[in-house]
Amino acid sequence: MATKMTHTAFPAAASMVFFFLVLPSTVLADDPQIPDDAIQLASWFNDVIQSHNLRRTTLDPVLVKAEERVKIIKVSKGGGGNFNKVMAAVDSVPAGNTQRVIIWIGGGVYEEKIKIDRSKPFITFYGSPDDMPMLSFDGTAAKFGTVDSATLIVESDYFMAVNIIVINSSPRPEGRRNGGQAVAVRVSGDKAAFYNCKLVGFQDTLCDDRGRHFFHGCYIEGTVDFIFGSGKSLYLSTELHAKGAGGEFSVITAQARKLESEDNGYSFVHCRVSGSGSNTYLGRAWMSRPRVVFSYTNMSTVVHPLGWSDNFHPERDSLVFYGEYKCMGPGANTSKRAKFAKMLDDDGVRPFVTLNYIEASKWLLPPPRLVPRGKRYELVYSKWMMTRYSVQNNILV
């Protein structure tokens, strides 16, 4: 696990109906390259990432079995649900869980610290896209240590979050002392997916700690190292919002790869870098061999011309893997980039612009949509929904 310091009235869950919209069956391609045209993303994703009952031969057998029996638990602040606290719903899931449990979180602000330990895989946090719930807590490194300061800690495998806002509400660190780091989400389990989620904080917003992870149509906001850790993750159509001010220094990634043998890194594809100020770095070499690639990404003037920092360790210049490919916008001008940055060609970028980067054929599923039908629910996987996510991401502010 990464350790980091820095200088500066719903029915009972058993009463459910499950409905799956049948889509044409296809097999995930051997090399499912992400299209270079963003307009094609929604239809492409629908074609390659289909529901579990259409991909039984390629998905992990334990995942297929878990998806065959789905339990839905409702959390509601105003009453009428199974619980009024998110952590109470998590506590109700037994250790050694083997079925998909969807915790449907109603709208509102839930001020609580939430942890899903490794004994509880196959949990989904689900919110309505029209009334997204907010999970909020004010933990800091001074109180809990950096990685345990998170509002939401996910240590289990096969986690999914859909339409959820997670905030660390601690104040912005002053920069003159250690302990102000405050994580919104730490994900340490393997095979986790986040769809249409907003993660908000200042320093160290997202601890992408370890395991394979997928972020689609998300919004991640912070100041210094606001995505950090040793995960192997693919970020697709996600906005990265740097909250700099004037000449204030800010950094998006502090990827923690240390050894050449480590198989981890971050790949950002069809993303957007926004924010304030003009002194934001795409990454800094917190550890000796970070691996980060930006492809087809729109970069605003918030990005510093150098793009990347060796973190005052010039001996790491020959060890880092910081790559860019066909990015756009004023911040993507590479004429003044750091000399150790790599301008990748078609062959060099190929491993980073494919779902194979995170072995998606074995575990990645489309997000569900829950539809209330009187006293019952319908669980739907649909093409319409994925198109909606794509459109929603384009209007994030």
Automatic annotation (TrEMBL):
Residues 1-29 form the signal peptide. Residues 74-359 form the Pectinesterase catalytic domain. GO terms for biological process: cell wall modification; pectin catabolic process. Pathway: Glycan metabolism; pectin degradation; 2-dehydro-3-deoxy-D-gluconate from pectin: step 1/5. The active site is at 225. It is an enzyme of class 3 (hydrolase). It comes from the Eukaryota. GO terms for molecular function: pectinesterase activity. Its EC number is 3.1.1.11. This is Pectinesterase. The lineage of its organism: Eukaryota, Viridiplantae, Streptophyta, Embryophyta, Tracheophyta. The gene is PPME1_4.
